[in-house]
Amino acid sequence: MDSFLHRYRNVSVLFVAIVAQIAAIAWQVRQDNDVPLLRVWAVSAVTPVATAIENIRSSAFGIFGDFFAGHGSRDETRTLRADRDRLRLENQLLKDQLATAQQANALAGFAKQSPSKMIGARVIGMTTGMGTHSVLIDRGSFSGVEKGMAVVTPDGIVGKVLQVYKFASQVLSVTDAGFAASVESQKNHTRGVMKGLGNSSAKVDYVPSGQKVDVGEVFYTSGDDRVFPRGMPAGKVTSVKDGATFQEIYIDPFAAEATPEEVFVLVDPVHQQIPEAPPPDSPVFLAPDTQTSADTPETPSKGTQADQLVDQYKKIGAAQNHEFGQGATVPNFNLKVPGVNAPMGSAGASGGSGARSASGGILSSAAGSVARAATGGSGIVRRVPVAATGGSGAVHIAPRPVGVSGLSR
Amino acid sequence: MATGHHILVDDARQVRRARYPKWVLFVVPLTALLIQIYLPLFETLRFVSKIDLPLLVTIYFALMSRSQLRGLAIGLVLGLAQDSFSRFYIGMYGLCKTMVGYMSASVGMQFDVEHPFVRMMLCLVFYLFHQFLYWVLQRAVLDQPVGFNMVGEALLAVINALIGVAIFHFLDKLRVRE
To answer: Which residue in chain A has the smallest CA separation from B97?
Structure first.
């Protein structure tokens, strides 16, 4: 027996190693769990180094890379050259600071605008294999990140948290073959399931053949999957083919166009409205900064549209000294109350359709708050398409903020 | 380098196990892993994700160690480390690289593994073998509907083999001189 084992020792060890790993995989599949200790060791070994490299790169490489690349002409005097280089270095430093500040402002604007509670994180690593895409971020359980949380940028959804370690997390990318999220199209409100394809694109499954989806249409998260809140941009349709039962819809995920440097983990996601699709030929203008406008209606409180409507009705009732639940009288809900459902300064004029004017007020308020958030601090002006709604001046909310493409590497 | 044009072992020197400083055995695999996960973050360096550096490192150390157990061990460790960063279950890369490490070491005892052509061919074959085995595991064990793009993988195998030869040449410089 001893001689047998000695003779076939190497093959025996190989056999044991293979059987052990197959058993480990089978156990993980069965338990729907893995061996966290190994991942923790590996991630703990690599994360500090990757974080350090990323910090050094982002703070120093840009400045010194451009500084050294900037050396050139030999004809200039040494003094002038030294001055030029010093000024160039200063200039580069200032540019870098400005870019960082602009980026921080854009991110802060997004975080401020979104009703969801979120944590900012930096991408420090990426893993790709056959059909797999995931990234490592520098926030983990220590910062409150939990498995299954949504990860987004102002451009759109990035993925969801797959594994959480103390100071890092692994995020499954939207382009991974195992990724899925429920989505809804902006224009035709067609619902489906967005799935990664393992390359840079994704597809939307389970859309019946009869339903209309246009090329160029934008898909937003529908909120049905309980991971991504409703209203986050997901991707733009690149091709649509009719199938026997379901359509073949391919989309370009917004956040996967380039790996983002910084992302947000949604700790407490809040649903938002999917913005209405702009009419095809509507003119586009740069919306004025509503922060300084005195006659902007009051920004509605957080909550659903129904909550906002209840709040509005309460204020209209209060304007008529009506106490809800007291007596059999009903207040006039069509009454225009300045700052509630009418601009400041106008009063009492009742619209032809109460429902339309009420919803118009909400849209105006929401548009105002979005525009404020978009311009607040960052100086970013968002393009808002005009859509006249019964003379109320209400505008559609623009689908997503612009001017934050500098986030991508 | 190779003696003459022979690719089979015909010299006692060719079957001698290469020795490396201990730090090399830690730093090189760790660097390979770091490069694999960090550089693809940059748009212009995205192609790095297509180069399986941990696999090339496994093949190199297994070939040069000329010991099946050492090859198996390095393949196992690097594979499991790579698994730790992938989204799949632990053991997928581990199993593939264990096999590659063992087989590389077995082949290393038959060929002159310092011959660039031998190295290139071994990298090419083992890359394809590794990818095929991983694909089989994905389909058979995880029931993932993933396709195997033979032409694409063959092209990547050639690129990996060429890069492997260059890396092997660099790693040769780290050997302990006898």
So the answer is: A18
